[in-house]
Amino acid sequence: MNNSKLKKQQTLSILKPDAVSKRKIGQILSRFEDAGLKIIAARLLQLSKKEAEQFYSIHNNRVFFNDLVNFMISGPIFVQVLEGFDAIQKNRDLMGDTDPKKAIPGSIRFDFSDSIEANAVHGSDSLETAKFEISFFFPEINIYNS
Ligand code: AMP
User: Is 125 exposed, middle or buried (0-12, 13-18, 19+ CB in 10 A)?
Assistant: First the structure.
């Protein structure tokens, strides 16, 4: 594809507690880098309950909200900003379907995750969400979409 027609974007990517505890950080980061996405910021941290509830507030009336929050605070997570052409969609394509049973072979969730809850990775789903999620973890970063 001709990259000159695509917009350079930034997106937030999280390697969830299951991926970190299984020591898959290196292998998963390779997927992003090999696909042309650049890691421009990264942190390893453990969320508090309050932070996880804030981050996932969009899902706070879903039946899985409490389980999701409890899972996300169960261990360290690796949070990063990925930059590249069409980064939001590219990241989501690399991740695969939310449910690993539906994810295509070769996607990160197919290869590294066990269930819809412990599904290894999170990625922003739109420009608006990316902006919120990046500033949540990296308030110092200037976001641009040009
Ligand atoms: P998303 O913001 O799309 O990443 O969704 C948040 C996360 O909620 C997903 O990555 C899953 O880990 C979890 N999730 C979404 N749907 C379900 C579900 N039906 N049951 C359990 N967890 C879910």
Answer: middle
Condensed to tens digits (0 to 9), the pLDDT of residues 96-114 reads 999 999 999 999 999 999 8
CA of 122 to the centre of ligand 1 (A): 9
Q: At what angle do helices 25-34 and 87-95 cross, to 10 degrees?
A: 130
Per-residue confidence band for 7, with pLDDT thresholds at 50, 70 and 90: confident
**13 membership: H or E segment, kind and range:** strand 8-15
Residues with CB under 6 Å of ligand 1 are 59, 64, 68, 98, 116-117, 119, 122
Q: How far apart are CA 20 and CA 43, in angstroms?
A: 12
